[in-house]
Each structure stands twice: as structure tokens, then as C-alpha cells.
Amino acid sequence: MNAEAYVYIQVSVSWVELDSGGSGFRINVSMERSRPGLLVSVLEALEELGLNVLDAAVSCADDAAFRLQALGSGQQGGSGSSVDEQMLRQAVLQAISKCLNHDDE
Prior knowledge:
Blueprint: E1 9-17, E2 23-31, H1 38-48, E3 52-59, E4 66-73, H2 85-104
Antiparallel strand pairs: 1-2, 2-4, 3-4
Helix pairs in contact: 1-2
């Protein structure tokens, strides 16, 4: 089998209290290899959920590891248009998958 078919991806999400008194999220994304458009795809997924990135540290380069640590504002769990940890994690994983599948074409 092709080793490229298996890419290690780790996504962790936690909710935090922000200095402004509201709630926010902290997300850590890491992959063993970067792909073109990966950062844009992940940020678009966050935007589609109505979340704002307040601060981020990113490390990515061709054929090198991809790492994103971001702090953002948004609503935690509950009803209406709020976002929970699982929804946020799933949206990021789908964005990564979309980028990986597009890269294979």
C-alpha cells in the first residue's frame, strides 16, 4: 500500500473563558505533512461556523509538518446557532479531508 494514503491528523478543541468575559475556543491541529491550501481550508471552516480567530500560531511548509494553534471567539454548546466541540472538530476534519482529496486529483 502507498504510505501517502495514511496521514496522521490530530485535532483537539477546548472551550475557554476570554478576557472580555465571553467564551471562546482553543484549537490545536497537527499533521505530519502540510498540503497546499490547508490553512485556508481550515480557516474557511471556522468562518462558516461563525467563529472568529483572535490569535493564531501557524507552522507549515511544503512537505513539512503542519501545526495550527488558534484562539477564537464563539458560542459554546446549547441551542440555536451555537457550536460545540465535536461540531468544531468535525468541521476542521472535513476541511482537511477536502484539501487532501483535492490534492490527490
